[in-house]
Amino acid sequence: MKHVYLIYFIFPFFFVGCKKQEEKLNITEKPKIVTIPNGLDLKYLANPPKTDTMCISDIQKAKRDIEKYSKLYVKTICFGCDDKPFETELEEVLKAKKIKQVIEDIGCVGYEGQTQVCYRETIDFEMKKMYGQNYFIELEKEAEREFIKNINENSKIVSIYDLEDSEKPKIKNPNIQIENNYYTTIKVDFPFKLEPYLNLFVDITFIIEKNGTITNLSVSNWVSGGIDEKFKKEIISKALESFKKDYNNWSPGKYKGNIARTENTLRVSFKNKTSPNSRTQ
Fold first, then answer.
1. What is the 3 state secondary structure string of the chain?
2. Which of 62, 31, 35 is nearest to 49 (CA)?
3. 194 falls in which pLDDT band (50, 70, 90)?
4. With bands split at pLDDT 50, 70 and 90, how would you rate the model's confidence at 280?
5. pLDDT digits over 126-145, tens only?
6. Cβ count within 10 A of residue 79
7. Which domain holds residue 176?
8. Total of domains in the chain
9. pTM of the model
10. pLDDT attached to residue 195
11. Single residue among 153, 174, 199 that ends a domain in this structure
């Protein structure tokens, strides 16, 4: 099972959610960077320092859950943690095998000497001891096989963010530029001037089908950039028209070699056809 030992206190702009949590807890002193024991080996779990009360409490909780449920699978939630693309299938596998899924929520706020991963580590160790070192790997492999089956047989939609870069869908139109797989610009004729400082854009979400065409276009975000709202409908309409005309031919995405219906989102900014130097950023 992949372990992620990440405590997020280094860059302040990452932590809007952490800031809210900190305010909610009414913590007056600035949180310190949490020190994670190197490897968090068995010796640490067997005899954590008495000062590491968080770890001790989590170990006790893990032991109670093991006694209660026998077979467990821990899902870790944290700021920046990635979900597996086959989460739904994994839940089905666990349910079929009568394995209890439990949650470990790694918080943003922590203190030096307090360890947040003892719950999962204790369960991981005990499950592997009772059911074999491949206990978690085999569960995840079975779920992934079901996921791939659903891609091939049930037209399951996969997020572009769950694909390797080499297997992400690629637009075939050589005149279309997409920066960082996310930003694109379209040329339009609007009854107003697009100033360079205006932050006008629209996010369009769509499905790239297995044959490379696009369907299910929708607007998932809109920022007016100071443009009068009365032009919103026209701006969005022109963006969608451009997509249907110029963005409708892709090399489809693949998940481990399996062609998949892929959900994608592009952020669209605009450039006036009649004013090449006036565009949104």
1. CCCCCCCCCCCHHHCHHHHHHHHHCCCCCCCCCCCCCCCCCHHHHHCCCCCCHHHHHHHHHHHHHHHHHCCEEEEEEECCCCCCCCHHHHHHHHHHCCCEEEEEEECCCCCCCCCCCHHHHHHHHHHHHHHCCCHHHHHHHHHHHHHHHHHHHCCCEEEHHHCCHHHCCEECCCCCCCECCCEEEEEECCCCCCCCCCCCEEEEEEEECCCCCEEEEEEEEEECCCCCHHHHHHHHHHHHHHHHHHCCCEECEEECCEEEEEEEEEEEEEEECCCCCCECC
2. 35
3. low
4. very low
5. 999 999 999 999 999 999 99
6. 16
7. 157-272
8. 2
9. 0.78
10. 64
11. 153
Domain C-terminal end among 153, 185, 216: 153
Min mean pLDDT across 6-20, 36-50, 91-105, 225-239 is at 6-20
257 alpha carbon, distance to own chain's centre: 21
Confidence of residue 119 (pLDDT cuts 50, 70, 90): very high
Q: Are 146 and 86 in contact (CB under 8 A)?
A: yes
Flag whether 68 is in a domain: yes
